[in-house]
């Protein structure tokens, strides 16, 4: 595995060297290299430098050019405008660099220089509740960020902070005690069945709770038993958790997101720490009692009435809330899991909560300077009307229904093309799922995390435009060309002159590592999606302008196959970092 320097970074080095050779008195200076439409690159560094030295930028640029003889890397360099350099790279350097990438499993992408440990909180549904589009976002974004970070060499610890604790369990457990067979099943249950019995039970117990005072009292006492760790109560609580997990796993499976049991550490997992967390906060004075509740105040956080609105870590009745759990989780993640970065893929509507929780943890000394805490607060999924996505009846949309519909639509598209390809029914079903789920994931990941987006299936499964299907087709089309190539293999020929479309494709391929470095540092999968879409667009232009199998010479056929193959591998790697499959045939 060898990391391959990009053309941009090699060039940057050369110009920086030329700069110091031309102006030994400055030492080092940034050439400020940019991609350019006029040439391949433009270097603007001479402008700033001349200003600093009170010299003439064009003269300075000319001196630098003298130190930059054309050769293996640089084909042409000229001083332009007020004093920047336009630089064209040789075709040979492009193909040579790409050949080095092709020889590496990681396509020449380096590991991060200083990998650390990130604990990421994502895919956190709630026990005994349906999963909705919000859980689509926290699962899909989280999964992509995990893959991207791991690819960079970061150690990643996954935490699924599921909602598995709270007063509602008193009501559910009490109901189950009084109706003991409600969760019994014969044989194995499907995720759907598990959810439907949980739903039934939830509704029935809620109705009873709201209408029957005595049941309400029994349910409240049951909460106390649960919190006291009463064995029978805990065993029943566990049944709800297990039943819900059957459902969660079935949805994650459909979503093609891998979740491991050992990474599910829900709210209940921090129970033993809550009292201590509160005690430490109170003793250190970070939190104070206010009307019996334990509160943390912030100068800049006020309610609508203008009064300070605190973070409540313990309610006046002694109950611990969401904040106490999150604070305890921070202690666990920093002290025990040794995180230096904490990520939270959680709805942007919880931003105030996390702002207050992070600030409290800083004051308490649990989040030290060396530890970064970031909420990747995601936007809302909207319906076609631009309002938060709801069913016609005004209810939240079930995630499974959405996924099923996406897969149905995609399967229809695949089926239509299947005859020509001779796909079996089994293959049609498999590809339909890969295309449908890919479409949903891509639509989500190609919008920046914090933005709202409209859930529009017609657009998502469209073959044209910025969709996963377009990218999957680009990949499959290359595979089909490679299959048809017969004896001809992908082989790089650096001695050949490149057509404009080949150069553009090649230069873009070379930027994969730089794009990933940026995506990794900023946690912005949409920039990777954007890169891949551009890659597929360059490929489309390349096809239109450069015949592959019918190219002029056998060398040119091989070289074009080489470009195709590297494009396919880059697409597959990039898509896989987004959690999206690339079928070999579509
Ligand atoms: N269970 C919550 C929900 O469904 C998300 C939990 C977010 N994570 C956390 N550490 N608070 O909205």
TrEMBL record:
It is an enzyme of class 6 (ligase). Keywords: Aminoacyl-tRNA synthetase, ATP-binding, Cytoplasm, Ligase, Nucleotide-binding, Protein biosynthesis. It is found in: Cytoplasm. GO terms for cellular component: cytoplasm. PROSITE patterns: AA_TRNA_LIGASE_I. GO terms for molecular function: arginine-tRNA ligase activity; ATP binding. Monomer. HAMAP family: Arg_tRNA_synth. Belongs to the class-I aminoacyl-tRNA synthetase family. This is Arginine--tRNA ligase. It comes from Streptomyces netropsis (Streptoverticillium netropsis).
């Amino acid at each position: 595995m060898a990391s391959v320097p990009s053309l941009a970074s090699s060039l940057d080095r050369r110009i920086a060297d030329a700069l110091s050779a031309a102006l030994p008195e400055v030492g080092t200076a940034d050439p400020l290299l940019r991609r350019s439409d006029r040439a391949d690159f433009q270097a603007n560094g001479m402008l700033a430098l001349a200003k600093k030295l009170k010299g003439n930028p064009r003269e300075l640029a000319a001196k630098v050019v003298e130190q930059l003889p054309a050769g293996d890397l640089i084909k042409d360099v000229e001083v332009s405008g007020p004093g920047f350099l336009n630089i064209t790279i040789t075709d040979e350097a492009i193909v040579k660099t790409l050949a080095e990438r092709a020889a590496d499993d990681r396509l020449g992408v380096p590991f991060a220089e200083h990998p650390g440990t990130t604990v990421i909180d994502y895919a956190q549904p709630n026990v005994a509740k349906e999963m909705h589009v919000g859980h689509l976002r926290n699962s899909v974004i989280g999964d992509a960020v995990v893959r991207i970070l791991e690819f960079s060499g970061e150690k990643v610890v996954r935490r699924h902070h599921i909602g598995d604790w709270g007063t509602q369990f008193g009501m559910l457990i009490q109901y189950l005690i009084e109706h003991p067979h409600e969760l019994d099943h014969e044989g194995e249950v499907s995720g759907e069945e598990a959810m439907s019995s949980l739903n039934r039970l939830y509704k029935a117990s809620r109705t009873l709770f709201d209408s029957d005072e005595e049941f309400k009292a029994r349910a409240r006492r049951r909460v106390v038993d649960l919190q006291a760790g009463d064995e029978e109560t805990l065993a029943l609580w566990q049944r709800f958790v297990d039943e819900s997990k059957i459902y969660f796993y079935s949805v994650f499976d459909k979503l093609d997101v891998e979740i491991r049991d050992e990474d599910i550490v829900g709210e209940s997992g921090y129970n033993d720490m809550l009292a201590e967390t509160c005690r430490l906060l109170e003793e250190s004075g970070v939190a104070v009692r206010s009307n019996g509740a334990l509160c943390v105040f912030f100068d800049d956080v006020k309610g609508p009435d203008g009064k300070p609105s605190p973070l409540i870590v313990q309610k006046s009745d002694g109950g611990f809330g969401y904040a106490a759990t999150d604070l305890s989780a921070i202690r666990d993640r920093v002290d025990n899991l040794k995180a230096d970065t904490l990520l939270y893929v959680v709805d942007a509507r919880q931003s105030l909560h996390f702002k207050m929780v992070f600030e409290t943890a800083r004051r308490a000394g649990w989040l030290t300077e060396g530890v970064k805490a970031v909420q990747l607060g995601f936007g809302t999924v909207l319906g076609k009307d631009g309002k938060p996505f709801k069913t016609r009846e005004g209810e939240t949309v079930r995630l499974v229904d959405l996924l099923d519909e996406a897969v149905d639509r995609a399967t229809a598209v695949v089926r239509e093309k299947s005859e020509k390809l001779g796909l079996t029914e089994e293959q049609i079903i498999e590809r339909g799922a890969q295309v449908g789920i890919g479409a949903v994931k891509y639509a989500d990941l190609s919008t920046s995390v914090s933005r709202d987006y409209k859930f529009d299936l017609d657009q998502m499964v469209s073959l044209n435009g910025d969709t996963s299907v377009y990218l999957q087709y680009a990949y499959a089309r290359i595979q089909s060309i490679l299959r048809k190539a017969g004896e001809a293999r992908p082989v790089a020929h650096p001695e050949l002159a490149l057509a404009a479309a080949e150069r553009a494709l090649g230069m873009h391929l070379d930027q994969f590592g730089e794009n990933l470095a940026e995506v990794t540092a900023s946690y912005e999968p949409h920039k990777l999606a954007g890169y891949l879409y551009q890659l597929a667009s360059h490929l489309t232009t390349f096809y239109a302008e450069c015949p592959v199998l019918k190219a002029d010479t056998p060398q040119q056929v091989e070289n074009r196959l080489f470009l195709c193959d590297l494009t396919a591998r880059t697409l597959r790697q990039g898509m896989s970092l987004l959690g999206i499959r690339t079928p070999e045939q579509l």
